[in-house]
Amino acid sequence: MSYRSMPFRVLLLLAGAIAIVVFKSSGPGSRAQNRPARTSASERTQTGVNGNVVRLSASTKPASGAGVNGANLAVFDAASSSNVQLQTTLEWSFGGKVQHGWSLYTPLIDDLIGAGVDAGGSEFAMRLSLWQREKGIEPSGVLDGETWSQMVAKFQSRRNVGRAYSAPGQLVTIPISDCYDPTRAEELRSAERETFAAYKRMVAAALADSSLGLQVGGNGQLASNEKFLKIVSAFRSPASRQASGRAA
Buried b vs exposed e over 81-100: b needs ≥16 C-beta within 10 Å? Predict the structure, then answer.
């Protein structure tokens, strides 16, 4: 018997029975609603600096101010303020002289801690805190004296040692205009000829890149008041190194 030939009352009863089944299967106590929701394939997890796991869906974006692995950079604002000051005011000793700040070494610092960002910013402080924790220093995010002393030791360990000294004929005298210290004595301004030539090529390439914002003098060289890319140290003879208390 086809549906068309069924009496209207029978069709009405069938419709009611179907409605009851649908209502029971989708009601508040149904298994479908009590079953835990499946995790979307687009969901991922991120681990913060403190080890907390944050679940992010594909449609969720990190909050404003979030850094590496979703770390909240706002907690490093105070450290950033300290770093801004210490860039030029931190007093430390090197080569028998008192030095001020570490701003000239920012590229080396960035390479060491994997920053590549503004040294006075919160992300720099956050990345610095990770490096401090790795080295057993309090992870404050502040580049203070203790942190800087360990960094200097790391930089010094990269220097060439055991290399034969250059003969006098292989040396040239560095012009005082190329030195960071305008009062540097002439006997402390020697450099290997090839090394100095490579330095001048580097400076010329840097000056040709206007995006670096280097100050240029009238002679097309670095301006006298430009502190970046100036020579801080140079060749030392065995005698001068021993006189200054350094190992040969």
Answer: ebbeebbeebeeeeeeeebe
pLDDT value at residue 63: 38
- Give, for 125, the enclosing helix (H) or strand (E): helix 122-134
Token pair belonging to 137:
């220093």
Alpha carbon distance 236, 191 (integer Å): 9
- What secondary structure letter does DSSP report for 121? S
In angstroms, rounded to a whole number, what is the distance separating the alpha carbons of residues 216 and 116? 25
Summarised one tens digit per residue, pLDDT across range 103-129 is: 989 999 999 999 888 999 999 999 999
146-155 burial, b for 16+ CB within 10 Å, e for fewer?
ebbebbbeee
* Model pTM score: 0.51
Closest CA to 139 of 126, 155, 154, 152: 126
Element at 2 (helix H, strand E):
none
Reported as a single tens digit per residue, the pLDDT across 145-199 is 999 999 999 998 887 666 777 888 889 999 999 999 999 999 889 999 999 999 9
CB neighbour list of residue 192: distance below 8 Å, 6 or more residues apart:
166, 170, 171, 172, 235
